């Protein structure tokens, strides 16, 4: 059972990422109302899941979301809450590409002096890289993630699909660490998608890991990948047409 102490966590959706403090005493309904302005997804269309390293996604849901508290889940500092949008793609608001929006970047030397930042909280509680056992913890985390890769049979050149939705399919092009993704250590799987539903061209922070057309490349965690004999969606459509002749 969680205490009422706030937990710093990552909030991720298909188009957004941020770091927020989550209060375990919140109800699911209250959390969803907080997530709407962050992700752009209305509460009624949110499907939440808690993601912990090396573990299967744990759905955050309840028969009565107005009364079900988040303390029922194993909220951990640095863990991720993934927000899936259940609306059809055609019904979703077209959010602007975050990379094209001007942002204020606080200088590191100023951020490090703030007494109420997530960084200060981690320092005071000896969490993350401030934990004396951080190197060993990071090593164990990598071992677990590689174990997930092996168990799922994720290898370069294998066909795959992303997440539980069958709308994004592609081919594995890279498996390994990507240091250029800030504050997101661990194993990433680079995928060349069949359609331009990605985020890049196979490069991150100026370093190329694989080559694809713009917006055909994407990097995701191993637990979001399912490998198998997944044909390109266009090929499936052609096959269906042939069966109707």
Describe the structure concisely:
With 245 residues, the protein is of the alpha+beta class.
3D architecture notes:
The chain is of the alpha+beta class and 245 residues long. The protein is built from five helices and twelve strands. 22% of the residues lie in helices and 24% in strands. Strand 1 (7-13) and strand 2 (17-22) form a beta hairpin. Mean pLDDT is 86; it is low at 236-245.
List the helices and strands and how they pair.
Blueprint: E1 7-13, E2 17-22, H1 28-39, E3 46-51, E4 58-60, E5 80-85, H2 108-111, H3 118-124, H4 134-152, E6 159-162, E7 169-177, E8 187-193, E9 203-204, E10 207-208, E11 217-220, E12 225-227, H5 233-243
Parallel strand pairs: 1-5
Antiparallel strand pairs: 1-2, 3-4, 3-5, 6-7, 6-12, 7-8, 8-11, 9-10
